[in-house]
Structures are given as C-alpha cells and as structure tokens.
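User: quick one, fold this
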Amino acid sequence: MILLLANIKQLLTFRGPSGPRAGRAQGEIGLVKNAAVLMKNGRVTAAGKEREVLRHPLAKKARVVEANGIVLPAFVDSHTHAVFAEPRLRDFSLRTQGVSYAGIRARGGGIISSVKAVRRQAPANMVSQLLERAERFLECGTATIEVKTGYGLDKKSELKMLEAVRAAASRTRLEMVPTLLAAHAVPPEFKGDSGKYLRYVLDEIVPAVVAGDLAQFADIFCERGYFTPEESRSYLNACLRRGLVPKIHAEQLSNYGGAWVGVKTGAVSADHLDYALPRDIRDLRRGGVVATLLPVSNFFLGLSRYPDARAFIAGCVPVALATDFNPGTAPCWNMQMVLSAACTHMKMTPEEALCAATINGAHALGAGDWTGTIEPGKQADLAVFDASDYRELCYYFGANLNKLTIKKGKTAYRKRDLIA
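Assistant:
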C-alpha cells in the first residue's frame, strides 16, 4: 500500500547521525514546515517539503491523508511494566496518608502484592488486559513499547507473562519488546535469600526463556533490600552469555552502584537514575549507555527529587524518556504527560524531551536503526497531533492531542472525527 500524509504544518524528522543523540544533538529535531511523508510497504519512501515529496513518482498512486497538524515519529516507550493483574489501589490509599514506599512494602504492598495477583490470574485474562492497554498506548501516539515481566517471580508465572506478551503482540499493531525482569524482587518463598533466588532464576527461568525465544532483554532491580551490585553484575553477565541483552534499574532510591554495573555489563540502558552522581554520568558516557529517565513515577509518588536531566545532557549521555507504566508507582501510558513532566520538573527543553521519547527511546531498545526517525528506509511509524506548534505536546498535560497513529505504514489508531 502507498500512503501519502500531506498538509503537515510541522514535521519533526529527527534525521541525524546514527546512534542515540547526546549533548547539543539531543535538541536537533529536523524540523520541516509545510511537509509531507510518502510511505510504501510499511517504510518511509520520502519525507520533507510537500512540494518536493509530491514530485516523487509514487505520489500520484498514493492514498492521501490530510494531517493538518504536527507529525513526528511515533513514541517509543522503552520502559513499561504493562503486564499486571490489577492496580495497587490499597497502596495508593496508604500513600495519600503519608505511608512511605518501605512502609507500604512492610504492610504487604508493593511488588509482592502484584506478584500474588499475577500468579493467580488466568493466561487468557492476562492477554485480554494487555490488548486493552495496547490500544491506550496507540491512542496516545506510542507505537512501540518495552514490556517487562517481574510480577511472577517463579518459572510458571514469569513464562506466563512472556507468553501473554507474545500472544497479545500477534493481535495488535503495537510493537512489544519483551524483557525478563524475574530479578525484580525476592519472592516470599525464598525468605530474603537473594543469592539463592538468582541461582534459581538462572537455572530454571532463563533457560526456558531462551529456549522459547521469549525475551530480548534481561533486567534487574539493583537497590538496597533487593539485589546488590555484585549480584546484579554476576546475574546480567550470566544472562548476556545466554543471549539476553542487559538493562538495569539503577540509582532509583539511593546511589548504590547500579549505573556502574550497567556500564560493566554492556547494558543498553540504565533506568531511573534519580540518585546518579557525576561519576555515574561520566561512566555512562564512556560506556555508551542510554540514561532512561522516568519522571511520571516521581510525579505520581509526590517526590520533590527528580533525575538531573540537565547534568546527563551536559555530560553527553543520551537521555531517553519512558512512562514506567506499572500498577504501583506510574499508572500512566500517555507519553505526552511524560514530556510535560520532563520539561517542568527536569528542565528539559521541548526539543530534548521529544528526542528522548522517539529516537533515543528507540536506541534504549536497540531499535534505533529502524524506528524513531522519519527518513527514507525507516519503518513508517508516525503520530499526528492536533496542534499548530510541536511545543504544545509538552505544554499541555492531562490530555491527548494525538489523532492518528501509523504503525508500519498502516493505521493503528484514528480519532473518530478525523477525515482521511
């Protein structure tokens, strides 16, 4: 199929050098006004000034869609926990009463409460839930997400989660990239013995995941009370030897050494990084690790501390943004809310934030070679927003300006009143 997206007020292409964007390059959006994009067989054929795109031989054969708005690469959400059985509403109520993260955990809440719910959930219900959530991501302009496990914490449940991701991905246009996060916490049956639990994961869960080709990445929560830097490094190296690319939850609640582990294991990204220090930033830059920041989680938790995005950008570390969509600390699938929080609470510019949610998010998933920009040869993953200026996507919050999401050249979401 040949599709022409015409009458684009502002097109953000993010064309540039290969690799994630860092430093000043993170603010370069590749803006084209009065633009068009021509697509064929799921790929971008031409993108630029409308008068130039219309000269392409295929333009006359294309089905034309009038954008009448802002177009940019569809968002790439590189950190979500989108498979869970139920929201943690009790945790939320406790938090409104001033109970801390640790206090909620001590009362049986937190990750372990989600584990209990996932373990008893029927696989069919898990798939149908994920499909419903997929539509919400698409509705908000996101066409690719990472999906972590980590609410199963035993072989049967972790595999159930990954199999649900595979089943749902075959029934939606949303692209889902699976990550094994079995090392999310120590389940109750291991009585706090993190070393014994990690050996179980490596002996029982990882081989089954690899044999079934169920995950692309392996992740671990490197934090006090969860897994030490030494355990995290050993675990991720073992996963890497088995073919799973490392990612890591690092420096979220304290400065604990997770960023260093990410560098030493060749992690594609280190995520959260609220307590990262200047030495961590230097290490991440030298190691070529993407810093994935998750400001909506801080916003929802009512925290005053946010990751120092300006320090990462000044230190030439590529910054990605993601929702951290999960049932306990970030019940948000709308990347537009993340953009707003990044600008208002982390002082990123709109240009930097949009780059972080597109091309840098793609690189945080190892997908930057085929998505995250709008240029010939790339996958035709685009989103059209009802706006006159791209900065409106970061200015407004609590709303959805997206009216059309295109995935691989096909409509994945269209607002009902859009004429195409």
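User: anything notable?
Assistant: Residues 102 and 110 are 9 Å apart (CA to CA).
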